[in-house]
Design brief:
Length: about 525
């Protein structure tokens, strides 16, 4: 007798969300097919690409950018029509875009789930913190997060461990680097909240990953595999029985009886088409790519909200000189975070913010600025030596609100090697965020003064931080949302979205851990039904 389905569940996308759904279902004995548009590359190959690229500031350069699976670096693939240029570091390979990231893995705080109720702006989540808390724990253990169990991460509950946790972090925090010691000593006595960042850049071995050796290369590629990326969970899923198919570009989704999803079809690099059936389907192919795929197939869009409500943590940066050498560029790329303005009644009027002390090597930027000022010879050498020792950099996130006009769509005017469309993105920065930026500029001056520093520059233009949310927004009402509280499509009962794109209220923290927690929660729901 022919089998009815090719798998219990088919998952599109092998990044942190898709790979964790696959692993959770495979552990429960479900038959799973995990599809990835890009290849499966070993770390040594990516590392060799990076070493020989000559473009170390281009985070995408070491990774595959194939004609049939283009990344955001492909000229013309992303076209921006709004006032802000959205150019995320999108990758297509097993593990996805978490191959290059800082590794920050924060939880949202309870007030982040109720911003409309508390402050009259944005949207509430259809679930609360307590609903997600046990899944935060599971995500932290799946990803291997190092963090502090004793600090207030909200900026509003000094002296408390906040938000509430039912389990400790799997790994404790590492020792502070020197510049972060100075930051805490200067700011905390004056009322600032400075706390340790939870991270998957671990200082102790965990789940087969080695302890961090301070290579300071997280934003490009971790050379030794300390930093978690989605390929870790994809490998676990395969060992637990999932089937991984690479270089499989999904382009077609077919509906069947009862408006359920019946099948998906993918193309190989040679344009061969394959069709697969399953009981349930999960789309986990990046906030942009998932929305594009759904729009290409008119799937899950009865609300006309697919691709809309795009949110990103745009921000500003401060560069200042410390009065003593701090030697940025050694050890972790990020560690301590200023949460003074993460929450409060002001959110009714303007954006919250999060400040991060960067610890990247500053020498290229210092040299570029000196050359632009016309310095040469001895003066150039002295500037680079002096500022390299003393330069400090703080960058900040601002809290966006969902706006249906901010959106991503397929771009039929650009086609890849398989004839599939590129992306057209429209993003405009709201007055709510711009007024929050004014607050940041004042806080930068205060921070520099408390550090006895000298401002070199505060950036004028908003910066892109690649935290793409809202494009498949979660809610309680099928008329203005794409998925419900489970991550299930309102239109198709056997279709789930596992992505940061379902997040309805962005807050100011990196969304990856929350996306992983929701993905694991969706996996549990699917497992009970198949």
């Amino acid at each position: 007798m022919a089998k009815e389905y090719d798998a219990d569940v088919i998952i599109v996308g092998s990044g942190v969300c898709g790979a964790n759904v696959a692993n959770e279902l495979a552990k429960k004995g479900k038959s799973v097919i995990l599809l990835e548009a890009g290849p499966n590359l070993p770390r040594w190959k990516i590392l060799e690409n990076f070493r020989t690229s000559g473009r170390h500031y281009d985070r995408n350069n070491a990774y595959p950018n194939n004609p049939w699976a283009p990344t955001s670096n492909k000229p013309g693939y992303i076209v921006n029509t709004g006032e802000f240029r959205e150019q995320p570091g999108l990758l297509k390979l097993v593990g996805g875009t978490t191959w290059h990231w800082g590794g920050a893995t924060w939880r949202y705080i309870p007030n982040d789930f109720r911003i409309k109720t508390l402050y009259g702006v944005g949207r509430d989540w259809p679930i609360g913190y307590d609903d997600l808390e046990p899944y935060y724990c599971r995500a932290e253990y799946a990803l291997g997060v190092a963090g502090s169990d004793t600090e207030d991460q909200s900026g509003q509950h000094p002296g408390e461990a906040y938000p509430r946790r039912s389990q400790p972090y799997p790994i404790d925090t590492e020792e502070l680097i020197y510049s972060n010691t100075l930051l805490k000593e200067a700011l905390i006595p004056h009322g600032h909240s400075v706390v340790h960042e939870p991270t998957v850049r671990i200082h102790k071995p965990y789940d087969g990953r080695p302890a961090c050796q301070g290579n300071n290369n997280c934003d490009q590629v971790c050379p030794i595999g300390t930093l978690y990326n989605g390929s870790v969970s994809a490998d676990h899923a395969v060992r637990n029985g999932a089937k991984l198919i690479t270089e499989a570009v999904v382009h077609k989704i077919t509906k069947g009886e009862g408006n359920k999803i019946k099948s998906i079809s993918y193309l190989t690099p040679s344009r061969e088409e394959h069709t697969l059936t399953a009981r349930y389907f999960v789309l986990a192919a990046h906030s942009f790519e998932t929305a594009k795929l759904m729009l290409m197939n008119n799937i899950g869009n009865s609300s006309d909200m697919v691709g809309r409500n795009l949110m990103d943590h745009v921000g500003l940066s401060l560069f200042f000189l410390a009065p003593q050498p701090v030697w940025s560029g050694r050890g972790p790329v990020q560690q301590e975070t200023i949460m003074t303005s993460r929450d409060g009644a002001f959110r009714a009027r303007y954006s919250a913010n999060k400040h991060q002390l960067a610890n990247n090597n500053p020498q290229i930027d210092i040299a570029r600025q000196a050359l632009e000022e016309g310095l040469m010879g001895k003066e150039l050498d002295e500037r680079i030596m002096d500022w390299s020792a003393r330069m400090m950099n703080i960058y900040s996130f601002l809290e966006p609100l969902p706006d249906p006009a901010n959106r991503v769509q397929p771009n039929p005017d650009w086609k890849d090697a398989l004839g599939l469309p590129g992306l057209k993105v429209h993003f405009t920065i709201s007055d709510y965020v711009k007024q929050g930026a004014d607050r940041i500029r004042e806080e930068y001056k205060n921070i520099t003064r408390l550090m006895n520093g000298k401002i070199v520059r505060i950036t004028d233009e908003f910066e892109n931080h690649d935290h793409l949310m809202g494009t498949m927004i979660m809610g309680t009402d099928a008329s203005d949302s794409v998925v419900n509280h489970e991550g299930r499509s309102f239109d198709h009962p056997n279709l789930f979205i596992a992505s940061a794109g379902v997040i309805p209220a962005a807050g100011v923290i990196n969304p990856t851990l929350t996306a992983a927690a929701m993905a694991i929660r969706s996996a549990d729901i699917i497992a009970r039904e198949v």
